[in-house]
Amino acid sequence: MKKLIQGISKNYNFVFKTTCVLIDGIKSIGLKPLLDPALNNPTLKRGVKKKPITLDFSPNFPVFRSALQYFSLVIIIASAAFLSSCNQDAAPSLYVVEPKGSTPVISGVIPANEALAGVTEVTINGSNFSSVKEENFVFFGTVQAAVLQASSTQLVVKAPALIKNSLDLKISVQGVENFSNIVKYNLLEAVGVYYAFSKGVDDPMTVAVDKNENVFVYVKDQGIKKISPTGVLSSFAPRGAESFFFDMKVGPNNIIYGTRNLRAIFQVSEGAASSTYVVFPTGISIITLDFDINKNIWAAGGGGNLYSVTPAKDITAFPIDYTVSALRVYNGYLYVAGKKDSEEAIYRYKINSNTSLGNKEKYFDIGAKYGLNKVQVGAITFAENGDLIIGTDMTDAFVLVNSNGVSSIFYPGVINPIVKSLSWGTKKNLFYIREYTDAGAILHTLVRVDMQKLSAPYYGRQ
To answer: N or C: which end of the chain has fewer CB atoms below 10 A?
Structure first.
């Protein structure tokens, strides 16, 4: 007769099922030990001879608690016996083999060919991606990128901090056997030392850039050095009475104008030491300066005034109630980083003329955002699109304030403090002087930042 025997153990993931001809009773196949009363027999339903019978081994019976291993062994032995003399249905596999998905395909990458390591969000278009971002594995060479967004046809990832060319960009999807096709891709340096001055010997303090992308650096106690676009260092001018400039800008005729935290502005021509350009009243200290579209200089620091200086050296004072650490002319306004006991902010004034400023406007409240006396502003500048860049002493040293007044960290985790001076070239490179401490010594280095955008005009160098 035919009988159906089925045993299930949830704990051991065991499944056995067979139908076969049994010559005599159940005892003839060695199941007698399972019917031992000491094991609390499972339910046995038995029909007449040549009728189907079913053995129901339920996990609710104590046999699974007291004799699970023995039960499994007996079932395996019984299975072997049945197979030798039975007509058996195909037994299902203990493991479910899921069908493999389709191989992912990369059809395009934005930006094409290259991105900034550790900075750029890279968009990968294609097909057969997973809409669950954790199931996509994107590699640049051997380094995995963080997946930020995912759909079946597009992935957005953060480029890893790996600076290397001709990397194999490829994608693996969980449950799919093969990688995607390979796209060659370059990851470029976003932030890095621009020129390696001798550490502890040459100490770069201030930076400016001319219209030909020559970078000028005041090296402490040495004078101004020029670095060509090809990286060649030469001497532009020897030092004067100063040790260094606090701020400097390239002006008309490639003359450099600088400040020394004194009541004067100085000028430097190629090959000559600095000379005094203009002098301000006693009690004034000038920290920072910039040019407007009419080549007027705007300058400030301590002493309670903003100043304009015309090309004819006519000086006009504008009273203020705060000290100034940085300023910048942009789009017809004078922007000023100011600080007093109760407030710290970026203010702006509309420039009506060299003798007239509009009312003070609070453009960005630094104290409200980060707390009073929590941030040291070293320099400010503007991008062509109106983004304000504030160089600070915070862990993430660049703060971006967009034209709507919304702030964010620029290149999080990439730009290190302290920003002492900065200048944006004619291309996408911004240069800044970074102050840092090493073995108790205060040192400086010249850093280049690929901003992925252009600067607003520097009027002095045009």
So the answer is: C
